[in-house]
Amino acid sequence: MSPESRPDLATVSARVADVQGWMSPGQASTLYDAAANCPNGGTIVEIGSFQGRSTIVLASAAAPGIEVVAIDPHAGNDRGPQEYDGFEDAAADDHATFIANLEQAGVRDRVRHVRMFSDAALGEVEGSIDVLYIDGAHRFAPAREDIRDWGARVGDGGTMLIHDSFSSIGVTLAILRELLVGSRFRYVGRSRSMTIYRADLAGGLGARLSNAGRQLAQLPWFVKNLAQKLALTLGLGKVLARFGRSVPEWPY
């Protein structure tokens, strides 16, 4: 797909405006750029698709020869904020809505959906991955497995994006465990809670320590997010709304 034929970000953003999900405009731009810069013949893998909001952005920006794989079991586990188990009926609707949203956006034939849990789907993608977007289970163990096992599949120079970084306890602990002092992934930055890593870290111990420092610098923002989540969980939003004050959104 040439730059002239690729729909621009504004067009794609309009396509997903009514699609449910947790993705800010800046995060949509980050996903769009990563997919648009994926090399010809490359592979994009998304872990956690929900109803297709991010999937549509990735598939719309990717060139025709690029494989776009969306991995989501639509089984009711880790469906959304504070929705960890027991949402099987809603998840079945999510699957139907996901397919319908891809059709509506005109990218159904661009996406290969693997309806499996991510740990079971490792064998469903061949070769190395050029762009990996992780937005799966947010508990520590599965988040760590996604970062460790799927991250190992990212080719040299490839991109790994992780949603809910430094806003979810499980995801943040997984990042600190797997990436803080790692020797491969360089922390590039973040768009709110979507972190950008590149598989090009070089320079020995000094580079690793500097990389760790840039990630540790995000911890005050992490603490702020936890405090905001706690306040909202305890009902602060209702109190603010009662007094006509704006209610802060759930951090993502």
Could you walk me through the main structural features you see in this protein, from its secondary elements to its overall organization?
The chain is of the alpha/beta class. It has 2 domains: 9-217, 3-Layer(aba) Sandwich (Rossmann fold); 218-252. Helix content is 41%, strand content 16%. It has a 7-stranded mixed β-sheet with strand order 3-2-1-4-5-7-6, sandwiched between helices. Helix 1 (9-15) runs antiparallel to helix 3, helix 2 (25-36) packs parallel to helix 3 and helix 5 crosses helix 6. The mean pLDDT is 91.
Describe what is shown at a glance:
The chain has 252 residues and is α/β, with parallel strands linked by helices.
The name of the CATH topology of the largest domain is Rossmann fold
What is the quaternary state of this protein?
single chain
Outline the low-pLDDT stretches. Answer: none
Tell me roughly what share of residues is in helical segments. 40-55%
Structural class determined from secondary elements: alpha/beta
Strand content: 15-25%
Q: What average pLDDT do the residues reach?
A: 91
The total of helices stands at 9
Number of strands: 7
| Count of the domains | 2
Ends distance: 31 Å
**Element order, helices and strands?**
HHEHEHEEHEHEEHHH
What general form does the structure show? globular
Tell me the major beta sheet.
7 strands, mixed
Any idea what the CATH architecture of the largest domain is?
Answer: 3-Layer(aba) Sandwich
- Which strand order do you get reading across the main beta sheet? 3-2-1-4-5-7-6
Rg (CA only)? 18 Å
Q: So what's the CATH class of the largest domain?
A: Alpha Beta
CATH homologous superfamily assignment of the largest domain: Vaccinia Virus protein VP39
